[in-house]
Design brief:
The protein contains 8 helices and 5 strands, in the order αααββααααββαβ. By secondary structure, it is an alpha+beta fold. The longest helix has 19 residues. The protein folds into 3 domains: 47 residues, Ubiquitin-associated (UBA) domain (Helicase, Ruva Protein, domain 3); 91 residues, 2-Layer Sandwich (Tetrahydropterin Synthase, Chain A), CATH 3.30.479.20; 39 residues, no CATH class. The strands form 2 sheets. Strands 1-2-5 form a 3-stranded antiparallel sheet. The model has no long low-confidence stretch (mean pLDDT 86).
Amino acid sequence: MAIDASSVRELRDRTSAGFLDCKNALEEANGDFEKAGEILKKKGLAKAMKKGSRGTPEGRIGSYIHTNGKLGVLIEVNCETDFVAKNDVFADLLKDLCMHIAATDPMAVSRETVPQDVIDKERKTYSEEFKDKPDNVRDKIIDGKMESFFKEVCLIDQPFVKDNDRTIEDLLKSAITKLGENVKISRFARFAIGE
């Protein structure tokens, strides 16, 4: 099927993918925009996964102070080049992350950065709560409770406050796809008066 330039441009406007990627996706989907969008999404996530292993020596510090002056957030987000760190997409990502942290108060960036003593305490609490259950059932319940715990306290696993259908990890993968570079959240701090 021949794909005209206006169709490619329309898909490109919708997805921010490259011209050639849009053309190939439309050809593969026989002109169906929805299918082409799904194809691009899958390819974009695959590219993001490959880029996820590359180093991130550059980046920026983002900040947010709530209008009442009683809540503030600092975040360090890293990328591969200074050029990307100065990009508007990167700046928007920093703003979104800061506002999300202000709203949700996560404990850690990822599961790997949650202190082990906190994990052990949480597991012990669930173990005592379900001590009357058979071992195999109790273990499954505890695993499920821990999964919920991580989704609540780990920034990467939290649903994005502006779009609950996406997690912060999805937001990062989208940024990686748009920017063409690896992007990582290194650390953050949330400050609130009285806390």
